[in-house]
Amino acid sequence: MADDFELDTDDLSRRMDGAIASLRTEFASLRTGRASGSMLEPIMVDAYGSPTPINQVGTVNVPEPRMVTINVWDKGLVNKVEKAIRESGLGINPQMNGTIIMLPIPELNEERRRELTKVAAQYAEHCRVSIRNLRRDGMDQIKKAKADSLSEDDQKFWEQTVQDLTNSYISKVDETLDTKQAEIMQV
After folding, report:
1. What CATH architecture is 34-104?
2. Domain 9-27+109-185 has CATH 1.10.10.410
3. Coiled-coil ranges per the record (predicted)?
4. Neighbour tally for 110: CB within 10 Å
5. Among 72, 102, 144, 161, which residue carries the largest CB count within 10 Å?
6. What is the pTM of this model?
């Protein structure tokens, strides 16, 4: 019986929250001129024959606003960690001091800041697309229920519910993007 149809909006919300969380993780990897341990999260080190996150081969610290340090636990991995950072494309030049790798974070110039805001906008657009795909999934469930005798009024109600949910998450993406772009452009 389709009269008992109820769209699982909690599931849609949870999945849209996942898209927002993914966006925030991508934003955390963008370098804003301030030191952050999270900027190293996407970097993998070839340790013991498999790709390993940096935070699993050493301790990542931020002792001052423009410096990140990594205290590598295994002396044999220090050069591999340094190589992984150099090849990561972060534009940071690691400095070695025994098992400690220091990463001075240079000041961003205006051109690089503008490039980073464009990258942030791309990340946000990917998130919007994910949310719209989830909206489409919800709408498909409603259309399937309509084929199983869901009334037009109920269909309109559920479609409006899904659209309102989508709009609220799209506005969250826009707010998050505006905040990140302001942070990037801040000198």
Report:
1. 2-Layer Sandwich (3.30)
2. no
3. none
4. 9
5. 72
6. 0.68
Q: What is the pLDDT of residue 187?
A: 65
Phi, psi of 59 (to 5 degrees): -95, 125
The band of 159, judged by pLDDT with boundaries at 50, 70 and 90, is: very high
**Cβ(22)–Cβ(30) below 8 Å:** no
Alpha-carbon gap, residue 186 to 180, rounded angstroms: 10
Structure-token match 């998130």, residue found: 127
pLDDT tens digit sequence for 74-93: 898 999 999 988 887 677 88
Spatial CA neighbour of 105 closest among 116, 119, 91, 117? 91
How far is residue 124's CA from residue 139's CA, in Å, rounded to a whole number? 23
pLDDT of residue 32: 67
**Helix, strand, coil % in the chain, rounded to nearest 5:** 60, 15, 25
Please name which of 162, 40, 53, 146 lies closest in space to residue 102, comparing C-alpha atoms: 40
Laid out side by side, the sheet with 58-64 consists of 58-64, 67-72, 100-104, 95-97
Q: Any idea where the domains of the chain sit in the sequence?
A: 9-27+109-185, 34-104
Integer-rounded Cα Rg, in Å, for the chain is 22
Q: Which has the closest alpha carbon to 96: 115, 120, 72, 61?
A: 72
How many CB atoms sit inside 10 A of residue 50's CB? Answer: 8
